Amino acid sequence: MLSLPSLIAVFENGYQELRPPSGDITTFSFTGDICLIREVEERLRENPQNAIAGMREALAADYVVGNLETPLSKAPFDPQRGVLQSDPDLAHVLISLGFDAFTIANNHTMDCGAEGLQDTLSFLSQNNIAHFGAGENLQQVRQAVIVEHNNIKIGLLGYSQPELDAATQESAGVAPLRKEIILEDIAKLRQQVDVIILTLHEGYEFQHYPRLEFMHLCRELAQNGVDVICGHHPHVLQGMETVGNSLILYSLGNFWFDMTYQRRIPESRQGLIAHISFDKNGPVSLKLTPTVMDEKSHLRTAAGEQRKDILQHLKNISFLLQDTEAIREQNALSTAKVMRSILGAVYNLGLKDDKAGFEKYFYHQIRRDPYLKAFCDYAELIGGYKSIL
């Protein structure tokens, strides 16, 4: 049984050979979160080529995959939970960047409801961009994209944590991040491909360490035949590690996503392009290209000291992954912060006797799956109570 070495060299110079290749290889590039709003939209309307200068070359690979965290639609927001929406007229920039596929298994895919999802699927299909992780029903969202290059067959599957957006047998949505479903899907897919890649959308926003539950799940999936796991949702970089013959990248951060509050969190303007080469037996090398959004949200590759600092930060947070108690402490800090935000918002609504505001907040935030996870984690990590959910 093959076993990849620990990641060390890649944090020093951005490249590490994991093992000698056996036969032909193919290279995939993976990015973090993409949403064409706010300053990103402004830059695209001003000068799209200047907004992304040099990025097509930085992404270059046999196959390029990103996380599209927005509907490409002009449909109205879902009144209970809509937040993000990108103008499809601007989305042709994604074609110019060379993307071949997007995971759309995330907590914003359904922000414009089923109509917005259909608009997104239509845009991607019309422009020959593959997609996975969301669709018209549960059967469709569990279908893999299978790519063959240099006689290597690679399958891609995507799953997301928001249970409220999960597809059913009769309704559109995203592929739910449930272990039993993922294990069924990878067992079926293994019979058709040489390499399996998962994109998983989960975690606490702006937390540099994965939730313990998620970390354990990723390691279990690695031991069950998944070759690469790429994580999204925290909007900042999280650590990475090898497990057996598998590579786990817990969060690639933001690729191109201007968030109104991120200016207080400079790490949310950093991301990684992960270039992974494969042979028929799995990953053989990992190359990292750090990226940044400047003060005007132009997207650029990081250079000089900025590049060095990002790789050093990635090294620091990756080495901590082997310390379960340290991760538990970081999770506890995150849950406490989330709980303060939730309870503070509810308290202020109560002071104002804002019943309509509370109802909107309840439907939009508290009952969303990530917040329910925060309640469970808070009970266990802070209060010492084992969750029964």
Highlighted features:
389 residues, nine-stranded mixed β-sheet, 36% helix, alpha/beta, six-stranded mixed β-sheet, 13 helices
Low-pLDDT parts are none
Strand content: 15-25%
* CATH topology tier name of the largest domain: Purple Acid Phosphatase, chain A, domain 2
Q: Mean pLDDT across all residues, rounded?
A: 93
Report the CATH architecture of the largest domain. Answer: 4-Layer Sandwich
Task: Work out the helix count.
Answer: 13
Give the % helix: 25-40%
Outline type: globular
Number of strands: 17
Structural class, by secondary structure, is alpha/beta
How many structural domains? 2
**C-alpha Rg (nearest Å):** 20 Å
User: How can the largest sheet be summarized?
Assistant: 9 strands, mixed
Task: Please identify which CATH superfamily of the largest domain we are dealing with.
Answer: Metallo-dependent phosphatases
CATH class of the largest domain: Alpha Beta
Helices and strands, in order, run as HEEHHHEHEHEEHEEEHEHEEEEEEEHHHH
